[in-house]
Amino acid sequence: MCDLISEALTTSERRVVFKTSADEALKALKEEDFDVVVTDLNMAGMTGTALCRRLVASCPDVPAWS
Questions:
Q1: What is the count of structural domains for the chain?
Q2: Which burial class, exposed, middle or buried, applies to 64 when counting CB atoms under 10 A from its CB (0-12, 13-18, 19+)?
Q3: d(CA 27, CA 14)
Q4: Is the overall model pTM greater than 0.85, yes or no?
Q5: What is residue 15's predicted lDDT score, i.e. its pLDDT?
Q6: Contact between residue 44 and residue 35 where contact means Cβ atoms under 8 Å apart
Q7: Could you tell me the residue range of the domain that residue 43 belongs to?
Q8: DSSP per-residue string spanning 2-61
């Protein structure tokens, strides 16, 4: 599913990065700047809602949806 979504969203102006666990996503968010985060509700390690809460607390300028 991640590959399909990534392929659909990737353009010459937009790069898509996907991670399959909350821990991987949090690590990537510390290492890179992102313009937007889209997350699944059911992720390994924590829910997408919990990930969004942590994201908003640490990166309030990045829109996040779960």
A1: 1
A2: buried
A3: 21
A4: no
A5: 93
A6: no
A7: 2-7+15-65
A8: HHHHHHHH--SS------SBHHHHHHHHHHS--S-EE--SB-BSSBHHHHHHHHHHH-TT
